[in-house]
Amino acid sequence: KDEETISRPNDEDAAYLEEYLAKKQKKGKTEEEVPLEEKSVLHIKDSEDYQGRSYTHIPQDLGVNLKSTEPPHKCFIPKRQIHSWSGHTKGVSVIRWFPTSAHLILSGSMDSKVKLWEVYKGRRCVRTFSGHKQAIRDVNFNNTGEKFLSASYDRYIKMWDTETGDVIGRFSNKKMAFCAKFNPCDDKQHLIVAGTSSNKIVCWDTRSGDIVQEYDRHLAAVNTITFVDRNRRFVTTSDDKSMRVWEWNIPVDMKYIADPSMHSMPAVSAAPNGKWIACQSLDNKISVYQVGDRFKEMRKKVFKGHMVAGYACGLDFSPEMSYLASGDGDGKVYIWDWKTTKLLSKWKAHDDVCIQVLWHPHEASKVASAGWDGVIKFWD
Hints:
globular; 29 strands; mainly beta
């Protein structure tokens, strides 16, 4: 007799539930199949010069050698604004120099577009790449600058051809990527790594589009990936307030740096000589770690005075390592002396958060800054 009283939804409820589940399944499906139309607009008429070389060709008539491997002999602190690039309709979240020459600057913005700008001559907007549905979180070139990756909050990473504006690859593991990079080794340029919101660092092979490795040790979303030690290792930082060092292609961290006093470090920059990394720590300081054979925090090298709590403000070294520059939450740019950690200069650069500062690799005193006011500014 007991067996007959099994609890079951009555007919009305059963019909309703069935409909509801069917709807839910359907809803999940439709969202996946509609990628946005990917297009790119060339904004300049003369996309080639008189010799038929495209805008990615490095100009040689500027009085500064953009192909040199040596940094400027002595750098100086910029004094004034010489240009501002505007065109993004919302805040800029990331800017990157074109590799080696830095005659172009690539910017990713919260208006879900990526733009490429000239740094010299007309300083025009060369190309706009649109193919994401949501804000861009990170962009990065490969070594030659022929391709770049854009990572967006729409959970896609796209690989673009810099010159034609075509999308060459799309990568997604259904999680947001907060940083995406090519492996900097010339023989491993087909491998890309991304730090995702699922606590993993995922490595794709761009030739096949397959995930070839996952580094799954962090306890929260992964914010940065920085290659160190002749690109054999990389350092990641995460919202779990720790830093992990990995050997390339070995999915277990070789070093785990965590300390109760540490804060999350959402922006990391490697020194040009490869001996240190500087990390923007959210308790309003920049901490420096020695990289190489031993990984340790340089307790004496702490740069303070700016206000970054809550923002992943980027930071950069001057090319010959005499200064360290950073943005801050009030829109200011700060420059410290690297050796003494003294604050040398600060000025108001943007009306909103100054999210990134980049020092030009060949010019002694030129710095680019990007802000959430949608403007990229060039200082000299």
